[in-house]
């Protein structure tokens, strides 16, 4: 950064300039052009390799500062392309960032730069989880619509390895040419080409790593309820059956549909809640599991500090997968995986255990399936689900399968 500001008439290519007075028209990024150029195209938005997986709730110490907080959050969301600011249904203001340090910087900016020093209260950091399934549903589940005239049959199964990541990376998505998408799915993931053309949608937010596939044969009026099923799926995949966390890596197969002959009896009001219930039922019959976010940690340290590093990583459920000595130096490069939920205070604990000789760098790497069953109340995943539900103000006990599945 330069030490002083100067106004200039024009700037040659390859320089960075600051422009004033545009902030009200721009959300996170935009392309500026002069009006004469009619064929200008927007430059693509940056895609980040990390996800905002650590969240905190913020509120004002003094209630009268609330307008400052709302305005400050808007400005923070514009100033940092990575940060996500949302308002929960409960009215909480949530800030999501890539990690503990990123959030610390965002909160400092929010308080000092965007709110003029007004005091805020910050909750403990909360980690986002994802819900997935381990195997195909043990049976085809069925749910009836509220008027009992329509029935949806569905199964859930986990996606093939690497498919969720391909959707995240944008290699496969809802806007692709169906033929090109079918080719990738059949060649790389072993899908049947005809089946690959029958994907109804992706979700949540129409681009997420879950999908609905039509497996029906010869069903009347199916296209009329497609939009309603998709709407129910978007709702369900955003708030899963375990703890209302986003789903990930689940493929829902519509096996059969029985519909009333009159269009008035199969409208959105009948189909959307039914689709949501049948999706939850198929998730719960397919061995549901929790996915936790995992950091890739890179640590540089001398040989005598290695014992302390391994000790801290074992204590925090981390595991080392690479240890290399840097040629010509006494330093070692260590790479390890560390669950995000265990990462709070990791840097300070590590420095204390190695007398300040180890320097960790954490970056979000992948989602890892928790081995314990969340349906067992005293398992690690079960306790996590209870904690998440308590935090969200839901009933601590999960809604049983019988609430979502109907019998003929």
Give structural attributes.
Alpha-Beta Plaits, 408 residues, alpha+beta, five-stranded antiparallel β-sheet, globular, 3 domains, single chain, Ribosomal Protein S5, domain 2, 10 helices
Helix content: 25-40%
Number of β-strand runs? 15
Content of β-strand: 15-25%
Number of helices in the DSSP assignment:
10
Taking all residues together, what is the mean pLDDT?
A: 86
What's the SSE pattern?
A: EHEEHEEEEEHHHEEHEHEHEEHEH
Segments where pLDDT lies below 50 for 5+ residues? none
Question: What is the C-alpha radius of gyration, as a whole number of Å?
Answer: 25 Å
CATH architecture designation of the largest domain: 2-Layer Sandwich
Structural class: alpha+beta
CATH class of the largest domain: Alpha Beta
Task: Supply the number of structural domains.
Answer: 3
What distance separates the N and C termini?
70 Å
Domain Elongation factor EFG: 289-378
Protein name: Elongation factor 2-like
Keywords: Cytoplasm, Elongation factor, GTP-binding, Nucleotide-binding, Protein biosynthesis
GO cellular component, one term: cytosol
Describe the structure.
The chain has 408 residues and is α+β, with helices and mostly antiparallel strands. The protein has 3 domains: 54-126, Elongation Factor G (Translational Gtpase), domain 3 (Alpha-Beta Plaits); 132-287 and 398-403, Ribosomal Protein S5, domain 2, CATH 3.30.230; 290-369, Alpha-Beta Plaits, CATH 3.30.70. The chain has 10 helices and 15 strands. It has helices at residues 66-79, 100-114, 163-169, 178-189, 193-196, 222-238, 268-284, 306-315, 346-353, 380-391, and strands at residues 54-60, 84-87, 93-97, 120-122, 126-127, 130-133, 141-144, 151-158, 199-203, 210-214, 250-258, 288-302, 319-325, 331-339, 359-369. The strands form 3 sheets. Strands 1, 2, 3, 4 and 5 form a 5-stranded antiparallel β-sheet that branches. Strands 6, 12, 13, 14 and 15 form a 5-stranded antiparallel β-sheet that branches. Strands 7-8-11-10-9 form a 5-stranded mixed β-sheet. A hairpin with a 5-residue loop joins strand 13 and strand 14 (331-339). Helix 1 crosses helix 2 (100-114). The longest helix is centred in the middle third of the chain and has 17 residues, at 222-238. It is globular. The termini are far apart. Residues 289-378 form the Elongation factor EFG domain. InterPro entries: EFG_II, EFG_III/V, EFG_V-like, Ribosomal_Su5_D2-typ_SF, Ribsml_uS5_D2-typ_fold_subgr, Transl_B-barrel_sf, Transl_elong_EFG/EF2_IV. Keywords: Cytoplasm, Elongation factor, GTP-binding, Nucleotide-binding, Protein biosynthesis. Pfam families: EFG_C, EFG_III, EFG_IV. Residues 171-287 form the Translation elongation factor EFG/EF2 domain.
């Amino acid at each position: 950064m330069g030490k002083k500001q100067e106004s200039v008439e024009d700037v040659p290519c390859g320089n960075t300039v600051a422009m004033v007075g545009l902030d009200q028209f721009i959300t996170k990024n935009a392309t500026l052009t002069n009006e004469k150029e009619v064929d200008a195209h927007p430059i693509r938005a940056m895609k980040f390799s990390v996800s905002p997986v650590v969240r905190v709730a913020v509120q004002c110490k003094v209630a009268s500062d609330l307008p400052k907080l709302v305005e400050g959050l808007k400005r923070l969301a514009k100033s940092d392309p990575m940060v996500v600011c949302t308002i929960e249904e409960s009215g909480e203001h949530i800030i999501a960032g890539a990690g503990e340090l990123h959030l610390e910087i965002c909160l400092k900016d929010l308080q000092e730069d965007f709110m003029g020093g007004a005091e805020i209260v910050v909750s403990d950091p909360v980690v986002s989880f994802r819900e997935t399934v381990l195997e195909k549903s043990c049976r085809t589940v069925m749910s009836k619509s509220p008027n009992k005239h329509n029935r949806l049959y569905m199964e859930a199964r986990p996606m093939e390895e690497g498919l969720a990541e391909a959707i995240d990376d944008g290699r496969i998505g809802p806007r692709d040419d169906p033929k090109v998408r079918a080719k990738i799915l059949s060649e790389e993931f072993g899908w049947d080409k005809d089946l690959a053309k029958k994907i109804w949608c992706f979700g949540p937010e129409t681009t997420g790593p879950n999908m609905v596939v039509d497996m029906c044969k010869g069903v009347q009026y199916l296209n009329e309820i497609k939009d309603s099923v998709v709407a129910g799926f978007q709702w369900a995949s955003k708030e899963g059956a375990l703890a209302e966390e986003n789903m990930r890596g689940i493929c829902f197969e519509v096996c059969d549909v029985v519909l009333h002959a009159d269009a008035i009896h199969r409208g959105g009001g009948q189909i959307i809640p039914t689709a949501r219930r049948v999706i939850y039922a198929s998730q719960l019959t397919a061995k549901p599991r929790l996915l936790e976010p995992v950091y890739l940690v890179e640590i540089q340290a001398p040989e005598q500090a290695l014992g302390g590093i391994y000790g801290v990583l074992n204590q925090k459920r981390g595991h080392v997968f690479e240890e290399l000595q840097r040629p010509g130096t006494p330093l070692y490069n260590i790479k390890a995986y560390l669950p995000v939920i265990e990462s709070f205070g990791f840097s300070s604990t590590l420095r204390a255990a190695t007398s300040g000789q180890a320097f960790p760098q954490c970056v979000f790497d992948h989602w890892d399936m928790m081995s314990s069953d969340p349906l067992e109340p005293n398992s690690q995943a079960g306790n996590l689900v209870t904690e998440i539900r308590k935090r969200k103000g839901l009933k601590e006990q999960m809604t049983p399968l019988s609430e979502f599945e109907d019998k003929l």
